[in-house]
Amino acid sequence: MTSFEEAETEETVTCLHLTFYHPCQDEKMMFRCLNFCKREQVRADEMAKFGRDSSVCRYNLMDTRVSRIQFSLQFFRKLHTSEYCFEIKNLSKKTKLTVNQTELGYLNKIDLPWKCIICFGDYQILAEIQEGESVDYFETHLHLAEAPILQERCLPCLPSLQPVPENGISPSFFLPQGKSPTEIDENEL
Asked: Quick check: pTM over 0.85?
């Protein structure tokens, strides 16, 4: 047998892709302590914490409006399955955290959907889970968005905002389904 045949079987690693956006990121540089260059390994039994306290948080946001510990992500395996997931927990007493349209108060937690938008304050984070098999660790891969994520992405769970005319009555209430308003000249009335 060759060394190739005797080598351990490579297992894939679950990777959590996180794309960060803040409207003032160019001026305030609140993401300057995040490593956007490469994937980072996190042990499966560690909690990945995000916040401004560098002694506690693995991922630091350099902003005084961010809580010392804003939120955490915990890697886990669902009971009676081989499926690996993440749980997100709001650790801020002052700021609510929104995952898609679910609002989390202090110490509330939910399973992280495989693709979602996490919001708190002016921060927007697109989270996407790339499945893997490893039980010992997972990886994070951080990205920086140049445009707002809520406007850039079109997720089915996020409502689209329709402009409302000055009179406050939306013309779509009076149109048959599938019909859209048509612009006409004032003189044609």
From this structure: no
